[in-house]
Design a protein that fits this description.
Blueprint (H helix, E strand, L loop, with lengths): L6 H4 L3 H8 L3 E6 L2 E13 L26 E6 L3 E7 L8 E11 L1 H7 L13 H7 L17 E4 L9 E4 L13 E4 L34
Antiparallel strand pairs: 1-2, 1-6, 2-5, 2-8, 3-4, 4-5, 7-8
The protein binds a DNA duplex (12 and 12 nucleotides) through strand 3, strand 4 and helix 4.
DNA sequence: TTGGTGATGTTT
DNA sequence: AACATCACCAAA
């Protein structure tokens, strides 16, 4: 039975934390049941990074990012989904690690019950929104201390060798695509299918609608 | 297997 | 208006 990381572990630079969380185990207790997943994909968000939610300073939504490391940051996105992060670095420094995918280890029956439309096990948790559905993570799980919380925490799991890990640009971003701050386990089938953001196509111009109302930047 | 698109609502 | 996404469908 492996143990939790210390507070100091999370006080590192978000990239170091993102790298070191690969192979760790995410634990979730809900209704007396235990869910466990091995972290296989992460992304770091940090200082000077326009893609980081902390980039424009603290707001009601992002204030937890500037507080103590090792707390959860769970936010709502695209009107439907939740994303689970861990706060990194020192107090006053807004950094976090997004957990993008886990490999189910325990409680797969519960994950399936939480994702009734999914056919293949590999689709249960291979994306940030998907793993939050499978693990039933949402607003109520924002701002929990993963060092202390009895129902949501991370243990050391297995250490991954550098040769088992790849990096890429982050998924789904339109800014800061030059940073290779996505980390994932080579060949693991539970890594998300998303494409790195530097090859994601820009939003469509939508020429059929409002074609007459051409946007003018300065006029 | 890949790529395109609608759903959905909070945040700035 | 943008957004740290997903599920579904069509085409190949």
């Amino acid at each position: 039975m492996s143990r939790r990381f210390s507070r100091n572990f999370y006080r590192q630079d978000s990239r170091a934390v993102a790298r070191a969380l690969l192979g760790a185990h995410l634990h979730r207790r809900i209704n007396g049941k235990t869910l466990v997943g091995k972290i296989v994909e992460t992304e770091a968000y940090g200082v000077g990074d326009p893609a980081c939610h902390a980039f424009r300073g603290a707001t009601p939504r992002t204030k937890v990012l500037f507080e103590e490391a090792g707390y959860s940051y769970v936010y709502f996105t695209y009107g439907m989904y939740w994303c689970f992060n861990v706060v990194a670095n020192d107090v006053g420094v807004g950094e976090a690690v997004l957990v993008r995918a886990v490999e189910p280890l325990e409680g797969i029956d519960i994950m399936r019950a939480n994702r009734p439309t999914v056919k293949l096990d590999r689709d249960l948790t291979n994306g940030p929104g998907k793993l939050c559905m499978a693990f039933a993570l949402d607003k109520k799980d924002n701002g929990l201390d993963l060092i202390e919380d009895p129902d949501l925490f991370i243990t050391k799991g297995e250490k991954m060798k550098d040769s088992d890990i790849s990096v890429s640009s982050r998924i789904g971003l339109t800014v800061a695509t030059e940073y290779d701050w996505r980390y994932f386990v080579n060949g693991n089938p539970f890594v998300s299918p998303g494409k790195p953001s530097d090859v994601v196509q820009k939003a469509k111009a939508n020429p059929g609608r409002d074609a007459s109302k051409t946007r003018k930047k300065s006029g």
